Amino acid sequence: MRFGEFLRQEGKSVAEAARELNRNHETVRQWAVEGRIPRPDAQRQIFEWSGGVVTPGDWVGTAERPAA
């Protein structure tokens, strides 16, 4: 399941996820809203935090946005 979908399903805001993951709000927003691909360490953390619902394979095929 995509990260943003997981947040919606669980009724979590980006701010809540950022706090619980101990990550920067903007970074979590980019993962959830823009589909930016997290680094492998963050993918593992999200996998564990989501109870295995958001897997590293869910990030495959997600378009990486160029830096502004």
What does this structure look like?
By secondary structure, the chain is mainly alpha-helical. It has helices at 3-10, 14-21, 25-34, 40-49. The chain has one domain (3-51). α2 packs across α3.
List keywords for this structure.
single chain; 68 residues; mainly alpha; globular
Determine the fraction of residues in helical runs and give it as a percent range: 40-55%
Number of domains: 1
**SSE-based structural type:** mainly alpha
How far from one another are the termini? 27 Å
Total strand count, please?
A: 0
Oligomerization status of the protein chains: single chain
Strand percentage: under 5%
Rounded to an integer in angstroms, the radius of gyration calculated over CA atoms is: 11 Å
Global mean pLDDT: 90
Mass-distribution shape: globular
Low-confidence stretches: none
Largest sheet: none
H/E element order:
HHHH
Instruction: Supply the number of helical segments.
Output: 4
Topology of this structure?
Layout: H1 3-10, H2 14-21, H3 25-34, H4 40-49
Helix pairs in contact: 2-3
Concise account of the structure shown:
The chain has four helices and no strands.
